[in-house]
Amino acid sequence: MVNLLLSLVVQKEFNSDIVQSIVDRVKPDNLYMLAAQESELPIFEQFGECVLRKNLVHGVYSEEQLDLEHSYPLEDDVIQYMNRYALDIIFQQRRFEAYPGFPIGDTVDTHYTVYRHNLFFLYNFLKRKQITHVYLAAIPHEGYDYMLYYLCKYLDIPVQLTHSCFIPPRRFALKDFEKDSPELKAEYDRLLEQYRDADIADIPLEGKTKNQFERWSSQEPEQMKPAQMRKDPFVWRLRQRFGETNIIRVWRGVLGEDYAKYGVSLKFIAAAFRKIPALIAAIPAAWKRYCFERPVKKESRRLRNYYQTLTTMPAEGEKYIYFPLQYQPEATSNPMGGGMYADQVIPLQILSKALPEDVKIYVKLHPEQLSLLRTEGYYREIASIPKVRMIPIEYSTYELIKNALAVSCLTGTALWECHFFGAPAIAFGYSVKNMAPFTFPVRTVEDCQRAVEEIMKKPRREIAKEVKIYAKALHNISFDIADLAKVLPELIEKFVAETSDGGRVSEN
User: Fold this and answer.
1) How many other C-beta atoms can be found within 10 angstroms of the C-beta atom of residue 105?
2) Cis ω on the peptide bond leading into residue 8 (within 30° of 0)?
3) Distance (Å) of CA 303 to CA 132, 192, 228, 346, 418
4) How many Å apart are CA 210 and CA 318, to the nearest integer?
5) Closest alpha carbon to 34 in 6, 58, 62
6) What is the mean pLDDT of the chain?
7) In this structure, are residues 39 and 13 in contact, taking their beta carbons and an 8 Å threshold?
8) How far apart are the C-alpha atoms of 29 and 18, rounded to whole Å?
9) What is the CATH number of the domain that holds 219?
10) Residue 153: which residues within 8 A CB-CB, separation 6 or more?
11) Per the structure, how many domains does the chain have?
12) Whole-prediction pTM value?
């Protein structure tokens, strides 16, 4: 028997054509889906039963979905198992506070109720539907999907994940985000041997990976920056979270294709006239987004200004570890930071305890950070940690990397960028960066002390060749998002076959 659950299906990416291909290849007995858009339910329900993301976010279900007469009550064993992840899940749920799509309340009672309702529903859903395989299109980080992930572990249901690489726009497959990828390690080891005697120029990279690697290798900040950092990252993040709120830009979006096609002409005026209903309909949607964005933008600017009052410029000649704070809420910290380490005070306290007295920690706010999960008290607490200096937002992250003894954070991009300056990385979280050359994965004071001792022996190393080989290995075990329609059905077919008896799951 194969009862397959897919998350998160949406026409924009994980669309009905891909689902059809999965059905054709896997031929599941039953297919279930977590669907992103209510308007798309009729498209996906032709393949099987769907649960709407909005309902999962709010923990609200119909009587038919709950089926209380045939339900399994939550008992001590499952409750105790999931308790260890409860705080992570509740903080992941907080990403939906002040969320324009379907906002969730910000009280403890609200979050607890959502947690309890989802635990009951998902536990029963997995058991009653006899789910045998689960595919998640990203490392789970929205609360309900993280709960699903660990309920599958509790019930011994195999899970397949894919996640974005730090080489855009690629993704890779994994089973457990807290463990190093055996495929990546094997490929890296193979390539190290293959190119052992080769010059770095003779190690080929392909397509977008080649272009991106050249940008990193340039050591030029404007080249190295991710796309969203090249303009105003704070504004970019507001738009990414809330959507466009400026009605003029919204209208430009509605009319953009016609303008590109016709220019300013009678045909364009005619096309614009036909789209007047769409233009009018865009106004209340933009206003709703604005109403959510405005208080967050105001509070975010206030907190950014407060952060700036705690900052000082780097001291000339001072030895330091650079610790860029990561944007939150995001999967890169919760869950990839690992439990309470998502609270970046925890790794900073560990690092501070491990460092010699003459080594400081330079902390800098992420330029995209909004007010969610931030308070004045949080910044004061970081500033009070011994050896910490808060650095102004506008100070160049690349200048800080260039002069640092090492770069440290949970899973951030800086852990990779630092290698192009020959600098080491101290990684507290779980990501594919952990196996990169000159990287020290740590979780304890003792781990940090050993890493720092090793770094002090040789603070800079020539690792350009190893870094290029690692990038090539990651490219080889990953896939371009443009190839999703081809790769994903093949991946899920292989996943089901490998975790089944003769291609079919044995019933326990």
Assistant:
1) 13
2) yes
3) 47, 47, 21, 21, 28
4) 36
5) 6
6) 94
7) no
8) 18
9) 3.40.50.2000
10) 159
11) 3
12) 0.93
Crossing angle for the helix pair 276-309 and 266-274, nearest 10 degrees? 90
Query: Is 439 in contact with 412 (CB distance < 8 Å)?
Result: no
Q: What are phi and psi of 191, to 5 degrees?
A: -70, -35
295 and 340 belong to one structural domain:
no
* Residue in the block written with tokens 């991710």: 226
- Of all residues in the chain, what percent carry a pLDDT higher than 70? 98
278 falls within a domain:
yes
Q: Say whether both 196 and 141 belong to one domain.
A: no
Domain end, chosen from 254, 285, 308, is at: 308
Which H helix or E strand runs over 281?
helix 276-309
Instruction: Supply the pLDDT for residue 503.
Output: 38
Same domain, yes or no: 110 and 195: no
Task: Give residue 265's pLDDT band: very low, low, confident or very high (50, 70, 90).
Answer: confident
Residues 209 and 238 grouped into a single domain:
no
> What is the Cα–Cα distance from 147 to 115, expressed in whole angstroms?
9
- For 258, 341, 347, 426, 443, the CA distances from 338, given in Å and listed in that order, are 48, 6, 11, 15, 9
Domain that holds residue 289: 233-308
Strand order across the 159-164 sheet: 49-52, 30-35, 3-9, 133-136, 159-164, 170-174, 478-480
Can you say whether residue 438 is alpha, beta or left, with left for phi > 0 and alpha for psi between -120 and 50 degrees? left
Q: Is residue 503 part of a domain?
A: no
